[in-house]
Model the fold of this input.
Amino acid sequence: MAHSTRTASLTIDGKTYELPIHSPTAGPDVIDITKLYAQAGVFTHDPGFTSTSACDSQITFIDGDKGELMHRGYPIDQLAEKSHYLEVCYLLLYGELPSAAELEKFETTITRHTMIHEQMHNFFRGFRRDAHPMATMVGVVGAMSAFYHDSTDTNDAHQREIASHRLIAKMPTIAAMAYKYSIGQPFVYPRNDLDYASNFLRMCFAVPAEDYVVDPILARAMDRIFTLHADHEQNASTSTVRLASSSGANPFACIAAGIACLWGPAHGGANQACLEMLKEIGSVDRIPEFIARAKDKNDPFRLMGFGHRVYKNFDPRATVMKKSADEVLDLLGVENNPLLQIAKELERIAVQDDYFIEKKLFPNVDFYSGIILEAMGFPTAMFTPIFAVSRTVGWISQWKEQLADPAMKIGRPRQLYMGETLRDYVEIENR
Ligand code: SDX
Done:
């Protein structure tokens, strides 16, 4: 971090404290309060971290007002159009676009790590068949620390590298196995002659009874969905991974924690919740009823796939996803998909509604993704696991960045205590 000369003055009970201001390469300045408690004996208070920077980072930047997202400086729409997921993984992990030789070496490394330890297959059988695949993924990914002891030491750079490759490579295999287990079909092993997205599709949809040829249209759509979900600054699940890692927890435990956090419907679970909402709406003439519910303070209903803590404009990923939905459904010959019609009409009405305009609520990444995934043949329960597969590289990149920061300390927030002050124990006969 550049040495700061500017300061912010904070006066409390007549005493003034000078707090350093740090300027970023992009985005708002930050006021450094690291020494505030030691100097002034007060905490700052920001429960949802709406105004709090938790770390330095060089990986991803979001301009919420402009609706812009860039990874290592490259805008998401260019990466979605011109790059592919494993190249974006390399960019997020190492900071630069790879040369042809670097990319080939990286892709070969990932491909060679796609199988999981054969004994891990037993883990799946401990779950009920109707377990949500996210529950299975939390369990199996956490259990990886019990199998891959040679890549759990976070102080060893080589072990960090192996763990990174293993997690990126094995997540599609684990997600596909969770899906196959849930539908009572045999696991399908990865193949080294397929690219990342094609391998995942084949592991999900192939059956031993016949050959499975990956549809290049689906493979391209799958790869683009992976690219669009790869990383997103310090979102809830990434912050969970960083906090878990700050205690020195092993990488598999940290990623399992990230998967658990992503599952929530306010976060990665929104893609499943959004498709279920579109099905509940059922037809365009019921849209006003649901818009009214979303605006009703007494109704907990929210438009799933709408709104964002950072974007106060269109989520650029939603824009790419909407275009991709049209293309994929067209190419799949899905004429006038009713859910896509409902989603487009819902978007059209909502973005013109004063409530949504005033609160700056726009479609986010989860609004259109489910429509594509369902058209590709995935059940809604697989939507968030697919998000988790993609986001693993973001979690891992942020995890590596934090471990490389010499200033890293265990994360340990304080609180505004509003409970009882000191009082003596009362014997039960006196209560
Ligand atoms: C992801 O952080 C990330 O980067 C996440 C993510 C990533 O890539 O990692 O982008 C992925 O999680 C996308 C978001 C997916 N979630 C949803 O689509 C669920 C629906 N959206 C909301 O729950 C909400 O918009 C959040 C959780 C996304 C953001 O919540 P905030 O920033 O805490 O905003 P808020 O709850 O304070 O809402 C501000 C106002 C409130 O009204 P008031 O109290 O000011 O009167 O807007 C309202 C909210 O009631 N509001 C909505 C709404 N979202 C916010 N009203 C109706 N429908 C909605 N979807």
Observations:
- The first strand starts at residue 7 and ends at 12.
- The pocket of s-citryldethia Coenzyme A is lined by residues 48, 232, 235, 266-268, 270, 294, 302-310, 359, 361, 364-366 (CB under 6 Å).
- The mean pLDDT is 95.
- The two ends are 57 Å apart (CA to CA).
